[in-house]
Amino acid sequence: MNQLMTNDNAQPRHGSAIRRLFLMALLLVPALAVSMPASAREVTFSAELKPYYGDGAYLALYVTDDKGQYQGTLWVAGGKSKYYRHLRQWARGSNLSRSEYDGLTGASVQSGRTLNVTVDLADKLFDGGYQVRIDSAVEDLRDAPSDVVVPLTRDGAGTPVSGRGYVKSLRYDFK
Amino acid sequence: MKALLIAGAVFAATVVSTGVQADDDCYEPVANWRPKSQLLQYLQSSGWQVMRIKVDDGCYEVEGVNPAGQRVEATFSPSTFESMGQEYEGDDDDEENEHERLAPSVDPQTSTPAQPPANSLINARPKVSVQ
User: Fold this and answer.
1) What is the CATH number of the domain that holds B86?
2) Which of A18, A113, B36, B40 has a CA-to-CA distance to A66 between 20 and 30 Å?
3) Is 0.90 exceeded by the ipTM?
4) Is B123 contained in some domain?
5) Which phi-psi region, left, alpha or beta, contains residue B84 (left: φ > 0; alpha: ψ -120 to 50)?
6) Does the beta carbon of A39 lie under 8 angstroms from any beta carbon of chain B?
7) For the segment A123-168, what is each residue's pLDDT rounded down to a tens digit?
8) Is A110 on the interface with B (CB under 8 A)?
9) DSSP A28-46
């Protein structure tokens, strides 16, 4: 009987624990929803090309650490993979492995035009010593490895950085 | 022992030469090159419509329509005019290039199938436009 009474009493206590967990979950859901966008940022990189006489430029937009070690590819402009080796530093870092750029390629960019690439980037990349670089190359003209190098910082958003090859400037903006 | 060394050298030479043959590039001395105008004449007399001839990776690269009526990009030896290969319009590697030649300012997203990149930095295909 005593045992039975204990069990009877335990039932409502168990029910209130579930209610408490449910309430906690309800409180956590909005908190998680707020914290998730903070882990990634939507960033648009805009690379404006200089006016030059020549074919469309091949560009590799990629991330390195502060020592220039390749971390990953954001975009490759240029349709023919046989020319990718001219994007020299990116080619060395990525080993020209297809898995590094599959689904991340498009047309080359003509003289004077601006390439805009919008991606979600992890928040930790900003102020973490990472850089975004562009290697560029134009057929029958000189290759420009690390044409432009931009440190990824929160304060650096909106500030154009001049290139030394075919890129006139590269800037990034948060949404 | 000497025979073994010779056999090894022959094997290595075979491997190296196979590698060179597999390469798309041409390695002929410039002194042996024949002029573009001769290649143009040769191709036209063979039924080609030539749109452009340029030098690429040591070869002559020709854009045009071959005698079978196919639009191609073909590579020729600059000294012998031997065909080194052709890429047809619609080849996988050439699809984006074709897009690039015909409509360079169009958003490339519309021309390439969206494939999820196997990339540690991003997990979706970027939105890309050219202005």
Assistant:
1) 3.10.450
2) A113
3) no
4) no
5) alpha
6) no
7) 889 999 999 999 999 988 889 999 999 999 999 999 999 999 999 9
8) yes
9) HHHHHHHHHHHHEEEEEEE
